Amino acid sequence: MTRWTNFLRGKGWRFRPIQDETTSMEDAYIVHCNRSDLNTQYGYLTNRTSTTKYSLWNFLPRSLFEQYRRAAYWYFTAMAVLTLSPFSPYNPISVWLPLIFVLSLGIGRELWEDLRRGRGDREVNNRPILVHSSDGRLEEKKWKLLCVGDVVKVMDGDYFPADLLLLSSTGPEGVCYVETMNLDGETNLKVRHALECTWTVGARDDKVLGGFEATVRCEGPNASLYTFSGLMELPDGQSYPLGPPQILLRDSSLQNTGSIYGVVLYTGHDTKVMRNSTPPPSKRSRVDKTLDKLIYAMFATLLTLCIITGIVLGVRTKREGTDVWYLQPLAYGNLFFNPERAYVAGVVSSVSGLILYGYLIPISLYVSLEVVRVLQALFMMLDIQMYDSATNKRFRVKSAGLNEELGQVDTILSDKTGTLTCNQMDFFRCSIAGISYGKGMTEVEISAARLRLPLGEGIHGPPDMEEGSPSSDIHRTFTDTDSESSVRASEVEGPSHNHYKEKGFNFYDSRILGGNWVGEERRDGIQFFFRILALCHTAIPEGSPESPSSMRYRAESPDEAALVVAAKQFGFFFYKRTPTTLHVRETHGPGAEPVDVKYQLLNVLEFSSARKRMSVIVRFPDGKILLLSKGADSVMLQRLDPQNRGYATQTTKHLQEYGEVGLRTLLLAYKVLKEEEYQAWQVRFTEARAVLGRERDIRTEDVAEEIEQGLSIVGGTGVEDKLQAGVPEAIDRLARAGLKIWVLTGDKVETAINIGYACSLLRPGMENLVVTLECDEARAIEENAQRSHLSPDDTLKALKNLVAQNIKDALHLVLMTSANPRMTETDELKAKSSISFTGTLSRSQSRNSGHMSRSPSKNNPLSRNSSNGLQMTQLSPIIQTGHGRKRSESETLAFQLENAGISSGLPPLGHGHKRSASDTLAFQLENAGVCRKSEDVKGAKNLSSGPQVEHALIIDGQSLAFILAETDLQEQFLRVCINCASVLCCRVSPMQKAQVTNLVRKGLGHRRLCLAIGDGANDVGMIQAANVGVGITGVEGAQAAMVADYAIGQFRFLERLLLVHGHWCYRRISLMILYFFYKVCILGWISFYSNIVAHFSGQPLYNDWYASFYNTLFTAFPIMVVAVIDQDVSAAQAIKFPELYRAGQRGEFFNAKTISWWLLNSWYCSIIIFFFPILVLGLGAFRSDGQVAARQDFGQAMFTGLILVPNLQLFCALQYFTWIHHVAIWGSICTWYIFVIVFGSLPPKWSSVAYMEFVEVLAPAVSYWLLQFLVVVAALLPSFACRSYLWMFQPTDYELVLESEKPGAQTAEESRP
């Protein structure tokens, strides 16, 4: 059974089950090197790969299986089968042909996509590679012919054909460089080095390969790209541990290396890259899910009509069967009208009605939706405004089925580094031996100066410092008079005008630049600090050692590259790396001759997200062995020698200050190792690396932990990651659009808060709620636990209770004072949104007219705020203002109006009189001039009854860990976050990012959507867990973009993606679905009426080919054009008025109300279309010879109205028209007339009753043309009248925008008294 299930899923039998990664020596994966014939006994896969879904023999059944995953196709197939019965009202061909056409389109698309995949597979499988043959020569083979154990030669720039074990390299000491962009999207080079025992294999003579043999025992095939464990056993009995540095993965490429020799370990679908080739999680849009429910409702309606048809015909047959003698009810084989078998007549009539009314379920809607979404995606990708010239990357759509979701996003979860920032790190400040170095202002400081915000108070209070210290300017409160001058001064004396500046280095301090550090009092400590920068890393130099300015470094992260560049600028130029040595050219003072120093590299303890540090063990030229380490201060401080903390206090203080101004900080430390101590540790480390499976990583980290203790502090670094262009403006507009923005970052709380202000995520006047365990209360709990000797479990329980109380207090605070509580959708919320939008529109009109009383601008962001202080609430529900007192009701309202940019303009009151808050708001709305109705003002008065402010929640990773472990805390945390305008999660791990996203997605429910955006591999889990995932192709690589639903070049493009394209796509898709059901319901109702007139016999009044082409030829093209290019507002208006986006959040375009309206309108139009021809054509003679209208005359005249009304109905639903709209609408109408002329001219055998019907009967009759005019006017008049009434008295937001943008609107506004 499993084999057949795999067959239907397209797996066939070529895939093997994934082996457990914890492989023991007994059941290890065994490879005989250079003896592929011995490996055949294990049944390893060939190296042929296939990414296709289908094969020649399973294509048809599986492609049909894929199509029939839609329930509607099963229904239409059943209907088509029923048309083969003798009582079918339609010709089977007229039903089967559209079904086959729709299925063929879907199957054709599957075939086209699979052929493209197959073409790529053939290209890859037939690539050439040099393989060592049994006779000792190298011969060229195709990739697909490789076997496990083969020895291959790969040249510089070529891709690795399988997962290889590196044997030797033309590089020094077996080193080669690998680019893994196709695996993880990272463009920086990785170092791989062979075991010393295999360095000489094939290095000088290829014939030496013939005598090489070895046995590799390693873990089985698995999907982990970053882990590997194994042993190589040589014929002499010696064993050597293998790890990731010896593995070359398929689809990565060799760079900057002449050639390498490697042994094939894993082939084909056993390679790690193929094991990672899993489909992304299936995501369906909310509109699609609502569409499913609507389909079920229509199917229920269809069944109801069929049951009514059967019951009515059965009852009438029982009572009146003998009276309709002309129908021969008692004739043999007559299933209708036989009173003796009335129940049979009822059942047959029900089945006939099921076919007749079947057009209530629009099969063409699914195909139309797919086509429209693809065209929408194409237009989005062609948007030049979303092209990133810096990276030469266009916007990409990978999940077009989620286009409409972009217009309904409620919450954005964003990474910070590389997403909000450029991920271009610049060395900016440093602390050495307790002294801070570095001048100039960071981007956060400049923003604070312009916003007149104090920095440094944070959550710990202002630090004490000496006046005139290099960091004292960080903690100043800027005033109006000195903010701009201080910015200009910093630019003159800071790093903006220094010739040492280069990519990665934006540091300026004359005390230590240019070799001046030799004159400092603590020069020995400074020199050692620079040496650590030059030695403690895994960077790869690229360039000539004779030209330091042209040297570039390939590092695992931009932070690391910036530190190596800083060492170069300070005179410690790292220029060469081998597996065992590091070469540094040191300059000890101004004018001194550079000295080349070689350091022996003994071990590298690599960085990981769990360790949060990296270390190297280096033997200095004098023979001393030192462990050099750098990492996060939270981790490094725990590993300092308690007896020799040195400059820990001063350095920690400086790093805190650096974090408060937005810098990324690292702490540098060292440890001197005795020879005996190191040798004993090296034995344990080698034993740990020889273990197979996951246990290897655990034991290796434990051994590394042993030696990384008792460190001595040297200093710290501050690296700046600048914000991307346009991020503050984009976040500000997204917030005005009603989007809740969360930032999930690994930065410290202080760093996150200040960057939050710099990018407008946090705004002056916003109440900041901080939940952190880096506070006095948490420290008191830990100190008390130590004094009382409490167990770790009791301590954790006390800390969890503290977090729970903080969350409870925060929830109480936000529910009492939040400006926009979000737990339920109420009329008050809609009124608030209406008021906010009205105020925005009023300000826009004022700006256009030149009479704006206050003009917010980019140069004066504080013009929207009345508070100069940084509001902060930590672990307490007390509301604070800039002056430490609680606002009054009227002050709160005035602040809100000021925040909205609306000048009250109130006339002065007499002395001693106080104006109420509701009067203030009412006056302001009336003064805006665009209030919808008086009820809005009344609602505004009711809404302003209490103090309401926006809140922001800042929480750290430790607190978040407690919350994610408790269901009750998760619910309270989510309620707090939903009612906050912004959320910052600090010190979070990649796993916590995914967990938080899952929590948000589930907590918001199906009515609200969350979007995740990131740029790195650590954001993949978050992106896949969200309703919509957006990846940024940035410095960290393209892995996030590869798994995302949409890929952009910079964060600022998200604004246009959501506010413009998202808004448009949601409205277009909603209108398309509603229109489809509108027009098919008209046809369905008319079919029901015609069946009533036909005595429920199932005989339609019109030719069945008319109905077959109704949804595909006569009415489909106009709505598809609308769904692709329609715009309710222009792109500029959507950006100018971001509040328009809230319509999608509220689901205004596709909800029960709009669905009911369109269905009710379809019922009304069906009555007009059906009964008007009966009234007009049935009053008397229809032809010139006195004949009355026949059944086919009624049918075709009625069907003409069925074509005209839906097509012309679009004119009542749109206000944006182009020549394309007109061509589509009038062209569809003309297509109908052309069809009836051409079809009617066919022989009667094919055209039946439609033969010459239009040319000879309808066209000459004046009553026919009069009828169509009456039908169109009567059917569309209510829609036109209703829309006109709503536009005048209850306009929507976008209608207000359109009115305000009209040329006469500004003049009318200015003429108002």
In summary, what is this structure?
The chain has 1313 residues and is α+β, with helices and mostly antiparallel strands.
SSE layout:
Layout: H1 2-8, E1 29-33, H2 59-67, H3 71-82, H4 92-125, E2 128-132, E3 138-142, E4 151-155, E5 163-169, E6 175-179, H5 181-184, E7 189-193, E8 214-218, E9 230-233, E10 239-242, E11 247-248, E12 253-255, E13 259-266, H6 272-275, H7 286-320, H8 342-356, H9 363-381, E14 396-397, E15 409-415, E16 421-432, E17 435-437, H10 443-451, H11 483-493, H12 523-535, E18 540-542, E19 552-554, H13 558-569, E20 572-577, E21 581-586, E22 595-605, E23 613-619, E24 625-631, H14 633-636, H15 648-660, E25 663-673, H16 675-689, H17 694-707, E26 712-723, H18 727-736, E27 740-744, H19 749-758, E28 767-771, H20 776-788, H21 792-817, H22 827-849, E29 873-874, H23 889-899, H24 917-928, H25 934-943, E30 951-956, H26 957-964, H27 967-978, E31 982-986, H28 990-1004, E32 1009-1014, H29 1020-1025, E33 1028-1032, H30 1039-1043, E34 1046-1048, H31 1053-1093, H32 1104-1114, H33 1116-1125, H34 1131-1136, H35 1142-1145, H36 1152-1177, H37 1191-1213, H38 1219-1240, H39 1244-1247, H40 1253-1258, H41 1262-1289, H42 1293-1300, H43 1303-1311
Parallel strand pairs: 15-27, 15-32, 27-31, 28-29, 28-30, 30-31, 32-33, 33-34
Antiparallel strand pairs: 1-8, 2-3, 2-4, 4-13, 5-11, 5-13, 6-7, 6-12, 8-9, 9-10, 14-34, 16-17, 16-26, 18-19, 20-21, 21-22, 22-23, 23-24, 24-25, 25-26
Helix pairs in contact: 2-4, 3-4, 4-32, 7-8, 7-31, 9-31, 9-33, 10-19, 12-13, 15-19, 16-17, 18-31, 20-21, 21-27, 22-25, 22-42, 23-24, 24-25, 27-28, 31-33, 31-36, 33-38, 36-37, 36-41, 37-38, 37-41
Binding site for Mg(2+): 415, 417, 1015, 1019
Cofactor: Mg(2+)
EC number: 7.6.2.1
